[in-house]
């Protein structure tokens, strides 16, 4: 029978109600979660690895990179068919993408969790774990990078987004759509994963990168404050296809002159940054000023890529390549290449 390594890190799937704290807190280790998950034994032999009881919002880049090293070790074991990481769902769109950037293996790496805790009605942990293990042993998902599964869908790490705070079906891929599903314990593929981005070498730490969101009535003062606070890099989630007020651009120019990497992303959930607009603060003026132009990566993922890329000591050009869409990736079906909206 196939062997799957499962790395447990905490999250709602591990939580119990603590009357003193007045709410849910992490409590169950891997063995206790598996004891509540019948049916896994018919899919694979499970190797349980406990890596703490952490709410996903508490994870640091150092934690994520350390978990990544454990996953890589499991992937390098020839007796292991695939790896499942079990974690809180709050930051799954960041952690899965971080691992997607640094792990090297053709084997599936599946990230899952639960939207309800074990003591709550509708606890979805067992079904998600069974789907994750089925995905981890599936030849269909080889060469697919890191994939997130909850509520039966398979989402690519470079696009997966938490779209709802509490729904079971919280996860979607706004740019390219889902990769497929797990139905009755089998992977049903709908599309292949495109080319992937790489951070190289694998960093030991993430750089200090802030994500700042533009909006009506905002200028670049937050950006100036972030630089004064010692930021190594900034991602600006600009409006629309990558536009801001002139004040943001002026602050970004000050930051870039001081050697800080600045990336221009969009606050929209899908679609690439465009150079169609050349008014002061328009995308074209940012790119002309030297900002790194983000492709269809959402701003949250762009921050992960910039933090890990800077941590790895990558050049400005290499950072640009990690933030842009990989060469050979198709135009996302639901995003216009040069939106004029
Ligand atoms: N709500 C979260 C979860 O689904 C809590 C966390 O991310 O740790 O696991």
How would you describe the overall organization of this protein?
This protein is an alpha/beta fold. The protein folds into two domains: 3-189, L-asparaginase, N-terminal domain (Rossmann fold), CATH 3.40.50; 209-323, Rossmann fold, CATH 3.40.50. It is built from nine helices and 16 strands. It has an eight-stranded mixed beta sheet with strand order 4-1-5-6-7-8-11-12, sandwiched between helices. Helix 3 packs across helix 8, helix 5 runs parallel beside helix 6 and helix 8 packs antiparallel against helix 9. The longest helix is centred in the N-terminal third of the chain and has 16 residues, at 61-76. The protein is globular and about 60 Å long. The protein starts with a strand and ends in an 18-residue tail after the last helix. The site of aspartic acid has 10 residues, from loops.
Q: If you compute it from the alpha carbons, what radius of gyration comes out, rounded to the nearest whole angstrom?
A: 20 Å
**Helix/strand-derived class?**
alpha/beta
Total count of helical runs of at least 4 residues: 9
The assigned CATH architecture of the largest domain is 3-Layer(aba) Sandwich
Overall tally of structural domains: 2
